[in-house]
Amino acid sequence: MQSLKKILLGEQGLVVIFALAFVLVSITVPNFLTERNMLGLLQSVVTIGIVSCTMMFCLASRDFDLSVGSTVAFSGMVAVMASNSTGSILLGLLAAITCGAIVGVINGVVIARFRINALITTLATMQIVRGFALISSDGRAVGINDPAFYDLALTRILGVPAPVWVMGLFFVLFGFVLNRTVFGKNTLAIGGNPEAARLAGVNVVTMRIWIFALQGLVCGVAGILLASRITSGQPNAATGLELSVISACVLGGVSLAGGRAAMTGVIVGVLIMGIAENVMNLLNIQAFYQYVVRGMILLLAVLLDNLRVSAATMSRR
């Protein structure tokens, strides 16, 4: 019993749970293992997966960002509107990524430099940025003028949609940054003990600003791909994304107390979120129940995080 508990709460525990759940779903849910459904599943988690890459850094440094959903929607709006007005898709993409990064820098400066609580700051920017998205479009969806914009989501490489490749690239890139760079080690150090990290020579304020800037930039990329996939700029897109992203990260072993993160765990957490929604769709379960399931997954994620922290504390004694 103790060994089973150790496995489930350890780094490999989530992988074991995911493997068992995947086998069970594959056996019981019709059409789950079809190529079409697998590709659809991967495409459905692209936004959550991409944003989770940098939310992992926010959580690992004892912060979090509730404005990611609004930033994704606003960036998508900017990409479409700038592309339409300039006639250049490239300029639209650059404008969207820049706007996302600016939102991230503002969050970082207010939180790190002015020492305003991350909850209050990102809750405020969540409302402000969503408001900008609604104001800029008068509350309506904005159509895409250049059909080439659709190719960002429709292009397939080796039979796999381009956004899935982008998500995979981000997983590899940020996994490398976390495990193999000074930036990643400093992020974990700040989350473990900010004061000790400062005394060790880490510029905590600058690091936190950079983390939020990266978060905003990645939201810009996610917003572009989402706008391309839904074929328009939607001011109400990505509503509730922040909770799904945080759930995926915490499920994946990223500690809400900071100082612990693993990209492999985040990937599994993202896939669990996607499979839960995919299975409900295949079983024709009403969309209303998905809110209940997301809430239960979030509670489960926080419970697992508390159990991991308790187990780690007991093992050190």
Automatic annotation (TrEMBL):
Enzyme class: hydrolase
Membrane topology: Multi-pass membrane protein
Spans traversing the lipid bilayer: 12-33, 39-59, 66-83, 89-112, 157-178, 209-231, 243-276, 288-307
CDD domains membership: TM_PBP1_transp_AraH_like (cd06579)
GO molecular function: hydrolase activity; transmembrane transporter activity
Predominant localisation class: membrane
GO cellular component: plasma membrane
Keywords recorded for this protein, A-Z: Cell membrane, Hydrolase, Membrane, Transmembrane, Transmembrane helix
EC number: 3.6.3.17
Record's signal peptide: none
Pfam short name (any one): BPD_transp_2
Localisation: Cell membrane
Classification via InterPro entries: ABC_transp_permease
Domain of life per record: Bacteria
PANTHER family named in the record: ABC TRANSPORTER PERMEASE PROTEIN YPHD-RELATED-RELATED, L-ARABINOSE TRANSPORT SYSTEM PERMEASE PROTEIN ARAH
NCBIfam families: PRK11285.1
The protein's name: L-arabinose ABC transporter permease AraH
Species, as recorded: Rhizobium straminoryzae
